[in-house]
Amino acid sequence: SQTIHQWPATLVQPVGSPLSLECTVEGTSNPNLYWYRQAAGRGLQLLFYSVGIGQISSEVPQNLSASRPQDRQFILSSKKLLLSDSGFYLCAWMAQGGRQPQHFGDGTRLSIL
Amino acid sequence: KQEVTQIPAALSVPEGENLVLNCSFTDSAIYNLQWFRQDPGKGLTSLLLIQSSQREQTSGRLNASLDKSSGRSTLYIAASQPGDSATYLCAVRGGTSYGKLTFGQGTILTVHP
Asked: For residue B57, which of B31, B33, B89, B83 has the smallest C-alpha distance?
């Protein structure tokens, strides 16, 4: 069966520090991968998606970037965090081909001080 | 631009009641609609996926219906239990190849003993 892992679960960072959140998927090949952010009172918003290694698309302009160095690895990064980057970050995957469900990880709670 | 609305925002019911959560969307050109459950501080758990050609899907005490032409979906929970307490999110996938989901703000359900 397929599983998705995100880490860390919780992170507290000072303003201006770098960020790296990692997501890996097991049990599937060539999945679509997604990063969402859930901010208080704003619902879930898609930040980035990837349909293959090295292929990244951004949905919204922001202070963050994403990379996909391996087929089942998706990384969310920032060089300098802003207060507005606080939130709950969720990684998701979906099998390619056909109308498949999306499956989500347990999320990372990011607090910027 | 797709917009998804969920009503009510919050619902509190006694154990054993049957209940209905509502979801509406503005653009009827969707691939599918997915219902999720989110426990506090946790990721999303997929409950049901309804394809655009389907009218309903059932899983245990859950039944989701879809009326694509009117832009509506309902999630019916039979014989509610305290363990059903969570936030329920509706998400629609539009007509793109990469599977972007647009989420509603969710319904916070509390089932008290």
From this structure: B33
